[in-house]
Protein backbone atom coordinates (compact mmCIF):
# COMPACT_ATOMS: atom_id res chain seq x y z
CA UNK A 1 0.00 0.00 0.00
CA UNK A 2 1.27 3.44 -0.89
CA UNK A 3 1.46 6.15 1.73
CA UNK A 4 1.39 8.83 -0.96
CA UNK A 5 -2.21 8.73 -2.10
CA UNK A 6 -4.27 11.82 -1.35
CA UNK A 7 -8.00 12.47 -1.51
CA UNK A 8 -9.47 15.46 -3.33
CA UNK A 9 -13.04 16.36 -2.38
CA UNK A 10 -14.79 18.39 -5.07
CA UNK A 11 -16.94 20.99 -3.28
CA UNK A 12 -16.93 23.96 -5.66
CA UNK A 13 -20.19 23.57 -7.56
CA UNK A 14 -23.04 26.03 -7.85
CA UNK A 15 -25.68 23.60 -6.51
CA UNK A 16 -27.92 24.89 -9.30
CA UNK A 17 -30.43 22.04 -8.98
CA UNK A 18 -30.90 22.89 -5.29
CA UNK A 19 -32.40 26.29 -6.09
CA UNK A 20 -31.10 29.14 -3.96
CA UNK A 21 -29.59 26.80 -1.37
CA UNK A 22 -26.03 25.54 -1.30
CA UNK A 23 -26.73 21.84 -0.89
CA UNK A 24 -23.26 21.22 0.57
CA UNK A 25 -24.19 23.33 3.61
CA UNK A 26 -27.54 21.62 4.27
CA UNK A 27 -27.62 19.67 7.54
CA UNK A 28 -27.54 15.89 7.30
CA UNK A 29 -27.40 13.88 10.53
CA UNK A 30 -26.18 16.89 12.49
CA UNK A 31 -23.49 18.21 10.16
CA UNK A 32 -23.23 19.86 6.74
CA UNK A 33 -23.62 17.54 3.76
CA UNK A 34 -20.03 18.22 2.63
CA UNK A 35 -18.72 17.13 6.04
CA UNK A 36 -19.75 13.53 5.37
CA UNK A 37 -17.41 13.18 2.36
CA UNK A 38 -14.56 15.04 4.05
CA UNK A 39 -14.90 13.03 7.26
CA UNK A 40 -14.89 9.76 5.30
CA UNK A 41 -11.73 10.85 3.51
CA UNK A 42 -10.09 11.95 6.78
CA UNK A 43 -10.91 8.59 8.40
CA UNK A 44 -9.41 6.70 5.45
CA UNK A 45 -5.79 5.84 4.74
CA UNK A 46 -5.42 8.82 2.41
CA UNK A 47 -2.33 10.87 3.24
CA UNK A 48 -3.93 14.32 2.92
CA UNK A 49 -7.43 15.52 2.16
CA UNK A 50 -7.75 18.49 -0.19
CA UNK A 51 -11.09 20.28 -0.55
CA UNK A 52 -11.66 22.24 -3.74
CA UNK A 53 -13.91 25.22 -3.05
CA UNK A 54 -15.65 27.62 -5.39
CA UNK A 55 -19.26 28.71 -4.86
CA UNK A 56 -19.66 30.27 -1.39
CA UNK A 57 -16.09 29.25 -0.57
CA UNK A 58 -15.80 31.23 2.66
CA UNK A 59 -19.02 29.80 4.09
CA UNK A 60 -18.08 26.25 3.15
CA UNK A 61 -14.55 26.64 4.53
CA UNK A 62 -15.97 27.98 7.79
CA UNK A 63 -18.38 25.04 8.04
CA UNK A 64 -15.48 22.55 7.71
CA UNK A 65 -12.74 24.58 9.38
CA UNK A 66 -12.43 22.40 12.48
CA UNK A 67 -11.00 19.60 10.34
CA UNK A 68 -7.37 19.12 9.18
CA UNK A 69 -8.12 19.79 5.52
CA UNK A 70 -6.11 21.48 2.77
CA UNK A 71 -8.44 23.99 1.16
CA UNK A 72 -7.76 25.10 -2.41
CA UNK A 73 -9.97 27.57 -4.25
CA UNK A 74 -11.04 27.12 -7.87
CA UNK A 75 -11.80 30.58 -9.29
CA UNK A 76 -13.03 28.94 -12.53
CA UNK A 77 -15.69 26.83 -10.76
CA UNK A 78 -18.57 28.16 -12.93
CA UNK A 79 -16.97 26.45 -15.97
CA UNK A 80 -17.68 23.00 -14.56
CA UNK A 81 -16.32 20.06 -12.60
CA UNK A 82 -13.28 19.58 -14.84
CA UNK A 83 -11.79 22.86 -13.61
CA UNK A 84 -12.19 21.67 -10.02
CA UNK A 85 -10.50 18.36 -10.83
CA UNK A 86 -7.59 20.29 -12.37
CA UNK A 87 -7.39 22.57 -9.32
CA UNK A 88 -7.27 19.52 -7.06
CA UNK A 89 -4.56 17.80 -9.13
CA UNK A 90 -2.44 20.96 -9.09
CA UNK A 91 -2.71 21.08 -5.28
CA UNK A 92 -1.03 17.69 -4.85
CA UNK A 93 2.56 17.34 -3.71
CA UNK A 94 5.11 16.40 -6.37
CA UNK A 95 5.61 12.97 -4.77
CA UNK A 96 1.92 11.99 -4.95
CA UNK A 97 1.48 8.52 -6.42
CA UNK A 98 -2.26 8.75 -6.76
CA UNK A 99 -5.41 10.67 -5.95
CA UNK A 100 -8.89 9.64 -4.98
CA UNK A 101 -11.42 12.01 -6.53
CA UNK A 102 -14.37 12.32 -4.13
CA UNK A 103 -17.64 14.19 -4.58
CA UNK A 104 -18.79 16.34 -1.66
CA UNK A 105 -22.46 15.57 -2.30
CA UNK A 106 -22.13 11.82 -1.63
CA UNK A 107 -22.89 11.34 2.09
CA UNK A 108 -22.99 7.52 2.02
CA UNK A 109 -19.43 7.03 0.80
CA UNK A 110 -17.47 5.73 3.79
CA UNK A 111 -13.81 5.53 4.70
CA UNK A 112 -13.80 1.80 3.94
CA UNK A 113 -14.70 2.58 0.31
CA UNK A 114 -11.58 4.74 0.01
CA UNK A 115 -9.45 2.22 1.90
CA UNK A 116 -10.47 -0.58 -0.48
CA UNK A 117 -9.32 1.56 -3.41
CA UNK A 118 -5.99 2.24 -1.70
CA UNK A 119 -5.53 -1.45 -0.81
CA UNK A 120 -6.11 -2.43 -4.45
CA UNK A 121 -3.98 0.37 -5.90
CA UNK A 122 -1.66 -0.69 -8.69
CA UNK A 123 0.63 1.97 -10.19
CA UNK A 124 -0.42 2.82 -13.71
CA UNK A 125 -4.02 1.75 -13.10
CA UNK A 126 -7.30 3.32 -12.07
CA UNK A 127 -9.20 1.78 -9.14
CA UNK A 128 -12.96 2.21 -9.20
CA UNK A 129 -15.61 0.85 -6.84
CA UNK A 130 -18.27 -1.43 -8.30
CA UNK A 131 -21.51 -2.67 -6.80
CA UNK A 132 -23.41 -5.38 -8.68
CA UNK A 133 -21.38 -4.73 -11.82
CA UNK A 134 -21.94 -0.98 -11.91
CA UNK A 135 -19.16 1.58 -11.45
CA UNK A 136 -19.52 4.31 -8.82
CA UNK A 137 -17.52 6.95 -6.95
CA UNK A 138 -14.98 7.81 -5.63
CA UNK A 139 -12.24 6.77 -8.05
CA UNK A 140 -8.48 6.45 -7.48
CA UNK A 141 -6.23 7.60 -10.33
CA UNK A 142 -2.54 6.74 -10.40
CA UNK A 143 -0.18 9.62 -11.10
CA UNK A 144 0.27 8.46 -14.71
CA UNK A 145 -3.28 9.77 -15.30
CA UNK A 146 -2.76 13.23 -13.74
CA UNK A 147 -2.03 14.83 -17.12
CA UNK A 148 -5.20 13.26 -18.57
CA UNK A 149 -7.20 14.67 -15.65
CA UNK A 150 -5.74 18.13 -16.28
CA UNK A 151 -6.95 17.97 -19.90
CA UNK A 152 -10.63 17.36 -19.04
CA UNK A 153 -13.17 19.97 -20.06
CA UNK A 154 -16.78 20.73 -19.16
CA UNK A 155 -18.97 19.54 -16.33
CA UNK A 156 -18.96 15.76 -16.68
CA UNK A 157 -16.07 15.12 -14.33
CA UNK A 158 -13.80 12.22 -15.22
CA UNK A 159 -16.57 10.05 -16.69
CA UNK A 160 -15.38 10.64 -20.26
CA UNK A 161 -11.83 9.67 -19.28
CA UNK A 162 -12.99 6.54 -17.47
CA UNK A 163 -15.13 5.45 -20.41
CA UNK A 164 -12.11 5.76 -22.72
CA UNK A 165 -9.78 3.90 -20.38
CA UNK A 166 -11.97 0.94 -19.44
CA UNK A 167 -9.03 -1.48 -19.91
CA UNK A 168 -7.00 0.47 -17.33
CA UNK A 169 -9.61 0.16 -14.57
CA UNK A 170 -9.19 -2.24 -11.67
CA UNK A 171 -12.67 -3.21 -10.48
CA UNK A 172 -12.96 -3.06 -6.68
CA UNK A 173 -16.16 -4.70 -5.49
CA UNK A 174 -17.93 -3.09 -2.53
CA UNK A 175 -20.87 -4.44 -0.55
CA UNK A 176 -23.25 -1.47 -0.63
CA UNK A 177 -24.72 1.07 -3.03
CA UNK A 178 -23.50 4.19 -1.20
CA UNK A 179 -21.08 4.68 -4.11
CA UNK A 180 -24.03 5.77 -6.28
CA UNK A 181 -26.05 8.04 -4.00
CA UNK A 182 -25.57 11.75 -4.39
CA UNK A 183 -27.67 14.71 -3.31
CA UNK A 184 -28.79 17.05 -6.08
CA UNK A 185 -31.85 18.65 -4.47
CA UNK A 186 -32.94 19.17 -0.85
CA UNK A 187 -35.65 16.54 -1.43
CA UNK A 188 -32.87 13.94 -1.97
CA UNK A 189 -32.03 14.24 1.71
Plain-language structure description:
With 189 residues, the chain is an alpha/beta fold. It has a single domain, classed as Spore Coat Polysaccharide Biosynthesis Protein SpsA, Chain A, CATH 3.90.550. It has 6 helices and 10 strands; from the N terminus they run βββαβαβαβαβββααβ. The strands form 2 sheets. Strands 1, 4, 5, 6, 7, 8, 9 and 10 form an 8-stranded mixed sheet that branches. Strands 2-3 form a two-stranded antiparallel ribbon.
What are the defining features of this structure?
globular; 6 helices; eight-stranded mixed sheet; Spore Coat Polysaccharide Biosynthesis Protein SpsA, Chain A; 26% helix; alpha/beta; 189 residues
Mind sketching the topology for me?
Elements: E1 5-11, E2 27-28, E3 31-32, H1 33-43, E4 49-53, H2 57-64, E5 70-73, H3 81-90, E6 98-103, H4 111-119, E7 126-131, E8 134-135, E9 139-142, H5 146-150, H6 159-164, E10 169-173
Parallel strand pairs: 1-4, 1-6, 4-5, 7-10
Antiparallel strand pairs: 2-3, 6-9, 7-8, 7-9
Structure described in brief:
With 189 residues, the protein is an alpha/beta fold. Helix content is 26%, strand content 23%.
> Averaging pLDDT over every residue, what do you get?
92
According to CATH, the fold-level topology is: Spore Coat Polysaccharide Biosynthesis Protein SpsA, Chain A
- The DSSP helix count reads 6
* Low-confidence residue ranges: none
* Count of separate structural domains: 1
Annotated CATH homologous superfamily: Spore Coat Polysaccharide Biosynthesis Protein SpsA, Chain A
Helix content: 25-40%
CATH architectural group: Alpha-Beta Complex
H-E string: EEEHEHEHEHEEEHHE
The beta-strand count equals 10
